[in-house]
Amino acid sequence: RRQRQMCIRDSVCPMPVAMVQKEVKANAPKEVEVMVDDQCAVENITRYATNAGYAVSVDKEGTDYRLTLKK
User: Fold this and answer.
1) Strands 55-61, 3-7: parallel, antiparallel or unpaired by DSSP?
2) What count of other Cβ atoms lies within 10 Å of the Cβ of residue 7?
3) pLDDT tens, 2-28?
4) How many Å apart are CA 38 and CA 70, to the nearest integer?
């Protein structure tokens, strides 16, 4: 799969980053869009994705954050 969308609201760290890690390791998508509602998850997913070679952009949408990870 080249693009993947994940909704990980109402999950506390480390679950969101663990779910993104699992997706990246299993499918190596070129792009992943992740919705979270926790600032800690934003920071941890951004750190992981950057180390995994993804460029990360973050957009705040109300109380949620949309992270776009691109290779």
Assistant:
1) unpaired
2) 12
3) 778 888 888 888 899 999 999 999 999
4) 21
